[in-house]
Input
Amino acid sequence: MSFSNSVAIVGVGETDYSRASGRTELALSLQAIRAALDDAGIEPDDVDGLMKWWVDTSTEAEVAANMGIRDLAWWGEISQAGNVGAPLVAHAAAAIHAGLANVVVIYRGVNGRSGRRYGRGDVTGQGGRGGGAFTEPFGLLTPQHGLAMVARRRMYETGITSRHFGMQAVAQRRHANRNPRATFYERTLTLAEHQSSRLIVDPFHLFDCCLETDGAGALVLASADFARELGKPAALIRAAAQSGPGVGSPAARGAKRLFAMAGVERDDIDVIQIYDHFGPFVLFALEDYGFVEDAGRLVEEGGTDFDGGRRPVNTSGGHLSEAYLQGINHLIEATRQVRGESTAQVPNVTFSFCDTGIGTGSVILERGES
Output
């Protein structure tokens, strides 16, 4: 039984994005949730479900108490098998469709720059748990260490180059230059600047790496019927899927479930948001999800640009140029695109696709009636 289009994202909200918020992660989360509720036009009393990512320091009980949520009927989190975003949307939508909750808020608040930093090994590299026991003793302590090896292998197998990675970084910076919320708003980037920037971990140049950020974001989910009563633009959840450990690419495996559930084809998708902790993985995901056979050729022709590209990608600037919030900002932008509210709006969007973690979770949103 599919929940296709029976549940919608009815509100989105975020804080400012900074390098030093001066606020607790709980305060950031509460601010983003309040903004999302205001966007939806509802009150905390309407909320009876909360969901978060497993590493988020703000518990559902703390958020409920501080927001004045009186009856929390549904709560939960996603484990380290998947990042914040699409898997949470799938779980929240399933709960609403099943009648276990009416209004579910998904949130992520993190001082990712002034607090614990992924790029410094503060979050990972902490004792060799799980697979890390086989890699961390040899120096693979941060995400960029391990993923650089994956990227280099992909370059060897397919012929994709660092210049292609740079072309995608430049396209996303151009999108961010239109987005007042973005860290790199009005700060341009050229391919030459990308190529001459310092290597962080070969083959990742500086501008291939995400922006460790202080900030928060939130989504409000409710039934499509409730969304229509609000009388505001909503993003219907056409399909949501997650894909954990298994054989082959998680994106390729998850895509089969996602597109079968949605009943649409890749060419029906108007705009794409892809998790870009490191920019090369945007191009890898475009191939693995089946959007293109040759992502290098796509970026050479400007195909990921919002204005005329055949596969517009990461139209808010993404993790590379807007902020790194582990995928929540990608879902916010995917929602804004189907509502016609993006600062880099793709014309006539009906279907918006969002990946929130190297294929571990993906969502297709559809424009709903207001």
User: Anything to note?
Assistant: The chain has a mean pLDDT of 93. Residues 22 and 276 are 26 Å apart (CA to CA). The first strand starts at residue 7 and ends at 14.
